[in-house]
Design goal:
Chains A, B: GO terms for molecular function: hydrolase activity. Two copies of one chain form a homodimer. By secondary structure, the first copy, chain A, is α+β, with helices and mostly antiparallel strands. Helix content of chain A is about 15%, strand content about 40%.
């Protein structure tokens, strides 16, 4: 029987206002363990593409309708999720308006790129965002 | 209980000779269904990164020691694998020498980019290689 890690998607959502001014990215406060701040994301369902999963999860957790702009990377270290081995496929996407925390997210807020609280980020989301800032 | 698609890796192996001349890419003839030509690849094991899985699978199927140069893309259409839903993470990599078909590969051969037999490729490997040629 085939056994592989779980597959998840995470989104780096770039927020713009209606005049196309960049406002920052979205982080959520997690309702479930591990507690802390995280990129919005979740598991891919059987029967949906990773892009569909990303759009669904961003809507569920932040109420935003995102447009995917780029594949950022794949993060797969076995210990990146303290619960079990999860491979995360990370996309960069774009959205307009204010995020609202829903579902697994107690809160969803916009953070300026210069004010990301790295010490509060769970999983390897600090590493993902450092890679994003460097490119 | 969490259920997600399986995670696999596939490699576009660029072969160079000892004078760094590009010779083509590697395709394998599959030993198991679906029968046909394919990129070398396989499932990610729990406890290994996708990069480790790629290096292991390339060695198992082609006997080549590859160096990963780039993430090519993520392919996740539910019907891309006729057996079940598999998300494939595709890397571009580099290797020297002659491939030898092993394990799941009945044969492993070098194909010039201008001579890829698209009609014989299984899964969505034709699409993956068309994306590769276009970029």
């Amino acid at each position: 029987m085939i056994k592989t890690p779980f597959v998840a998607v995470d989104g780096i959502i770039k927020i713009f206002d209606k005049d196309e001014n960049f406002k920052g990215i979205v982080l959520i406060e997690r309702k479930n363990p591990p507690y802390g701040l995280a990129l919005p994301g979740g598991f891919v369902d059987i029967g949906e593409t990773t892009e569909e999963a990303l759009i669904r999860e961003m809507k569920e957790e932040t109420d935003l309708d995102v447009i995917i702009t780029k594949l950022h990377g794949v993060y797969s270290k076995p210990d990146r999720d303290p619960r079990f081995h999860t491979v995360s496929i990370v996309y960069i996407c774009k959205a307009y308006g204010e995020p609202k925390g829903k579902d697994d997210a107690k809160k969803a807020s916009i953070y300026k790129l210069e004010e990301i609280p790295f010490e509060k980020l769970v999983f390897d989301h600090g590493k993902i965002l450092k890679d994003f800032l460097e490119r």
